Backbone:
């Protein structure tokens, strides 16, 4: 029986068949690209999400036939290059995701094309370098090099050299690097008693992530403070590797698999000891809740980790539902302009960050459900920085119009790019940091 648009069945992503030879077959790939491009051309509802769709539609509109069959196949990858796997088109907009008979999964088709390009060696050395977060971040986060890197990021002359040599845009906001990673200067936080609920153990192992360890450790420290304040025991997962999202976006799926293999024993050890797992970065949560389970659908260990992995506010609201969250707040945070991170939106657990913030008395939250345009690396590249800022413009405008006391995003990188768009008028504050402030801890 065919499945019509508008049916009430829940979308279902198909496993990623990345280990088969056909996945990398050029003719098969391009045939599928043409099929999906033609469907997208006839729909066009995703045109405002990113630059992939305007690129595709411009190619069609400028062709001799005004159809996909008039587009030169040599230009197909131009569409792929603009996709940063935010997943919004599939999870938020597309009516043709499985179980629809057309079975369109645009981001995972883009992933397949990226994997094909990577296997063909059609990847810039810069992109290979800046997605190698573990060795690069470890190298930079030493006292001397971190200070030099932070100084260089603020030097207009050095930034111009970086743009010409490495292709990092001279105006793109770059992350600050700590001189000592968080995991080397923080210990576990135990409580006298922990209370399990039907859905949570009351014990949390924090997957700090590359970004939380090296760039914004304060977010992780604030998360720990909030968890402990609510009677939750905390373990810090040290020696963990990158989640693999940067390499996924590059199409280096073998590296994604190796990072998964490195992290699973650490995660399973925590789960076996009775801990749930939380990561402060939405992209890292998404990797273990969606992407890796789709890459390894028959791996029982991946499934176990998926079932025990949570977004911070998803976890806190699960605890709140069972009356295990402190709701006495000492300080107000006022009006909040809250940007909903794309990789959090597509996890389909609802607006838990907003819901938790609204537990704080006299708090007014303006939620902004538009992509910030940052992606992991898209906003820092010479060739895509301007496009990222264009995508971010509606979000920046909404934040400015909200006239809020504070603004922030679950994704610190998104918050930084929004602040960049505001031209220094206001600094972002992560929602978990807002909560810590409200608790007065």
Residues:
């Amino acid at each position: 029986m065919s499945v019509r648009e508008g049916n009430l069945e829940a979308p279902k992503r198909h496993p990623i068949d990345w280990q088969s030879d056909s996945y990398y077959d050029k003719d098969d790939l391009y045939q599928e690209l043409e099929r999906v491009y033609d469907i997208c051309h006839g729909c066009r509802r995703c045109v405002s999400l990113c630059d992939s769709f305007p690129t595709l539609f411009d190619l069609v509109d400028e062709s001799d036939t005004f159809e996909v069959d008039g587009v030169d196949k040599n230009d197909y990858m131009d569409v792929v290059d603009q996709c940063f796997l935010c997943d919004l088109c599939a999870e938020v907009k597309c009516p043709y995701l499985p179980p629809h008979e057309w079975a369109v999964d645009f981001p995972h088709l883009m992933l397949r094309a990226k994997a094909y390009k990577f296997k063909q060696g059609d990847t810039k050395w810069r992109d290979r370098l800046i997605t190698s977060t573990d060795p690069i971040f470890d190298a930079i986060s030493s006292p001397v090099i971190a200070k030099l890197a932070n100084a260089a990021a603020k030097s207009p002359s050095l930034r111009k050299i970086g743009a010409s040599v490495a292709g990092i845009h001279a105006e793109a906001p770059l992350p600050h690097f700590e001189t000592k990673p968080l995991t080397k200067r923080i210990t576990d936080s135990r409580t006298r008693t922990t209370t399990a609920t039907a859905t949570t153990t009351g014990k949390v192992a924090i997957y700090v992530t590359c970004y939380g360890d090296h760039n914004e450790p304060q977010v992780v420290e604030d998360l720990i403070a909030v968890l402990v304040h609510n009677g939750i025991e905390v373990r810090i997962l040290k020696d963990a590797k990158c989640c693999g999202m940067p390499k996924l976006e590059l199409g280096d799926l073998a590296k994604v698999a190796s990072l998964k293999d490195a992290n699973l024993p650490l995660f399973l050890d925590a789960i076996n000891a009775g801990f749930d797992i939380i990561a402060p970065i939405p992209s890292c949560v998404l990797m273990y809740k969606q992407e890796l389970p789709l890459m390894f659908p028959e791996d029982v260990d991946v499934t176990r980790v998926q079932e025990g992995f949570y977004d911070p506010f998803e976890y806190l609201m699960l605890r709140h539902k069972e009356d295990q969250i402190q709701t006495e707040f000492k300080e107000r945070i006022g009006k909040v302009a809250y940007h909903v991170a794309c990789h959090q939106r597509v996890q389909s657990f609802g607006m838990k960050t907003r819901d938790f913030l609204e537990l704080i008395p006299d708090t007014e939250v303006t939620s902004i459900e538009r992509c910030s345009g940052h992606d992991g690396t898209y906003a820092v590249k010479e060739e895509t920085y301007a496009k990222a800022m264009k995508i971010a413009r509606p979000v920046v405008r909404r934040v400015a119009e909200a006239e809020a006391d504070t603004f922030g995003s679950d994704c610190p990188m998104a918050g930084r790019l929004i602040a960049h768009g505001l031209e220094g008028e206001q600094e972002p504050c992560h929602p978990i940091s807002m909560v810590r402030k409200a608790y007065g801890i």
Notes: The first helix runs from residue 26 to 43.
